[in-house]
Design a protein that fits this description.
Number of strands: 4
Number of domains: 1
Mean pLDDT: 83
Low-confidence stretches: 240-259
Helix content: 25-40%
Strand order of the largest sheet: 1-4
C-alpha cells in the first residue's frame, strides 16, 4: 500500500474498502498465478483512480469525504480491458464502514501519517496509464491473464485462495506467495500466515461473499489453487519463452514494496 499511497498522493484512510480489495486481488494474481512481483505498468494499464464525493441534498452539489474518497476503476477504452483481466465484481454494500475505521500503530512511519486531509479534486496522475512505447511489452502478461480468464479464475476464487492459505496479500512477509510451498522454513511460513489454524470452508465462503457481488459456495473454496500448490497452472515457462521476442524481461517491476 505504500507504493499506492505515494503514487496517488493519498493517506490510507482515503482508500475505499473496494480499493483495498482490488489491490489485494491484483497482488495475489501477480504473485500466486503469474509468478512475479506486483507489476506497476500492468497496474497502470488496468486501473485508474476516481474521486468519490457524497451528495449534499442539493442538485449538483457534493462534498468531499474524509475516508473512502479514492476508488479504483477498471479501464475500458479501445482495448476492452475488462476482457484482459479476471472478472472483479465487488460488493457495493459497505454502509457505515467509514464511521468505524481507525489507524493502528504506524511502525517506522512506513505509511503516510494521518493528517485528516480532504481531497476535493481528482489529481491528474490518478488516470495515468502506460506510455505508448512500453505498451507492447505488456503483451505476454496480458496473454497470460487471458489464459487465466479462460481457465475460470475470478476475484472471488482469488480471495478464497488467500483465505484458504491464511495469507494477507498486502502485508509485509518473508516469502512471496508462490514461495509458500513444501521445503520452506516453517518459521517463515508461519510468519506469512494470519492464523495457526486453517479456517473452515463455510467461514471462507462467508468472508468472500462479504467482499464480492453475488453468491459464493463453500465447495468453491480454493477452486483455483495458487502456485506452487498441486493443481495450479504454471504460466512462468510460457511467459519466459514469449519474453525473448517481446522484451518482457526488461519490464520494470514495482520498485517500491506494495506492503
Amino acid at each position: 500500500m505504500r507504493a499506492l499511497c505515494l503514487h496517488y498522493g493519498v493517506e490510507l484512510q482515503h482508500f475505499s474498502p473496494n480499493t483495498i480489495t482490488v489491490a489485494a486481488v491484483f497482488a495475489t494474481v501477480c504473485e500466486s498465478y503469474l509468478g512475479m512481483m506486483p507489476h506497476w505498468e500492468l497496474w497502470l494499464h488496468l486501473y485508474r483512480g476516481e474521486l468519490f464525493n457524497t451528495p449534499t441534498g442539493t442538485t449538483g452539489v457534493r462534498k468531499p469525504v474524509r475516508a473512502g474518497c479514492h476508488n479504483l476503476v477498471l479501464k475500458t477504452g479501445k482495448t476492452e480491458r475488462p476482457r484482459e483481466y479476471i472478472p472483479v465484481g465487488l460488493s457495493t454494500n459497505h454502509a457505515g464502514w467509514d464511521s468505524q475505521w481507525f489507524y493502528l500503530r504506524n511502525d517506522d512511519d512506513l505509511l503516510h501519517a494521518y493528517t485528516g486531509r480532504l481531497i476535493t479534486e481528482r489529481p491528474e496522475n490518478w488516470t495515468y496509464g502506460v506510455v505508448q512505447a512500453h505498451q507492447s511489452r505488456l503483451d505476454p502478461l496480458l496473454d497470460a491473464m487471458k489464459k487465466l480468464c479462460l481457465e475460470g479464475l475470478t476475484a472471488a476464487l482469488v480471495l478464497s485462495a488467500d483465505h484458504h492459505k491464511r495469507v494477507l496479500p498486502l502485508m509485509s512477509r518473508p516469502l512471496w506467495m508462490d514461495e509458500m510451498g513444501p521445503g520452506v522454513s516453517s518459521r517463515d511460513l508461519e510468519a506469512c500466515r494470519m492464523s495457526n489454524e486453517a479456517p473452515a470452508d463455510d467461514e471462507v465462503a462467508a468472508w468472500v461473499r462479504a467482499a464480492i457481488a453475488g453468491d459464493f459456495k463453500p465447495e468453491h473454496v480454493n477452486g483455483f489453487p495458487m502456485r506452487p500448490d498441486v493443481g495450479s497452472i504454471d504460466l512462468v515457462c510460457s511467459l519466459l519463452v514469449h519474453s525473448f521476442d517481446s522484451g518482457f524481461l526488461s519490464i520494470p517491476f514495482l520498485s517500491l514494496p506494495w506492503f
